[in-house]
Amino acid sequence: MGFAVSLLNAVFRRAFTSAGLRKYSAAVDDEGTTLHFWAHPSLLIVSENGAAAAASSKQSVQTRPVVVLIHGFGPDPTWQWAAQVGPLSRHFDLVVPTLVFFGASTTGAAARSDAFQAAAVAALLTGGRHLPGLVLDEGRRQVHVVGTSYGGLVARHLARSLAGSDGDGKAALGKVVLCDSDLAKGAEDDAVLAAKGDVAVVTELMAPADGKALRRLMALCVHRPPKYIPECIVRDLLRKYFSDKREEKIQLIEGIVTEEDDPQLNSPLPQEVLIIWGEFDQIFPVEKAYKVKE
């Protein structure tokens, strides 16, 4: 990794550690799915090797609400949530998972849908095995979910899977926040985005294979992008965050569940939902926010 990208990576990781977050990992199913995640230590008991461990006894924890931050496509969640973890950590305990095929999170399962991603996060949050701090003697910690872009699609499935959870160590799901996440996207939206990025199919844009494609993506996803980015930085970003598991990420894009797959997909969520949208979003234009609200 080049110096500039290494420096940025260190800065963003420092934002997480300064917010009191520490990095852990957990095997969440019997199909070889391992999620790496950041969390406040009060939410779990840690074994000597630093991995999340099951425990029969409860650790004393602060009974603050919990917020789960689910990232979108692109670099590690430390890059995507660095600005938010500090302010949020003053009021909430945080869990920031790295979704499957991003970073070091992986699976042996064949599934590639956003619903599968949600099932993996749900397994991390429920049962008290990986995050025993979510289960208290007097009841369950309230968990709010925030998803941005692709993470919002995952948050939708997570909200449904945790809705009305009672007993069995399950977390009580509170509010849902969707940030620039087009829950109503379909094939026509992908075609429009591909045309905007001057590529044949949307996977060429969202999972760039070379520096030219990455520059196109950055021009669309960054408001007021830098006028000049040295080729060495583009090359390092591509190698570190986009080339790794690229084929699997393409499968994730192709595996997104749509209303054609599930007619009930966009029936109203039972939780209170807040929609946040960037006025200048070129990936998901702001008018899509009103369609999501409907």
What do you see in this structure?
The longest helix is centred in the first third of the chain and has 16 residues, at 3-18. This protein has helices at residues 3-18, 77-89, 114-125, 150-162, 187-196, 202-206, 211-221, 231-242, 246-254, 287-293; strands at residues 22-27, 34-39, 66-70, 93-98, 135-136, 139-140, 142-148, 172-179, 273-276. The radius of gyration is 19 Å and the shape is globular. It starts with a helix and ends with a helix. The chain is of the alpha/beta class and 294 residues long. A hairpin with a 6-residue loop joins strand 1 (22-27) and strand 2. The strands form two sheets. The chain has a seven-stranded mixed sheet with strand order 1-2-4-3-7-8-9, with helices on both faces. Pfam families: Abhydrolase_6. It comes from Zizania palustris. This is AB hydrolase-1 domain-containing protein. Residues 67-198 form the AB hydrolase-1 domain.
Number of helices: 10
Radius of gyration, CA atoms, in whole angstroms: 19 Å
H/E topology pattern: HEEEHEHEEEHEHHHHHEH
Taken as a percent bin, the fraction of beta residues is: 15-25%
Gap between N and C termini: 44 Å
pLDDT < 50 runs, ≥5 residues: 46-61
Q: For the largest sheet, list the strands in their spatial order.
A: 1-2-4-3-7-8-9
- Per DSSP E runs of 2 or more residues, the count of β-strands stands at 9
Strand count, sense and barrel status of the largest sheet are: 7 strands, mixed
Morphology? globular
Average pLDDT: 88
The residue fraction in helices comes out at 25-40%
Derived from helix and strand composition plus strand pairing, the structural class reads: alpha/beta
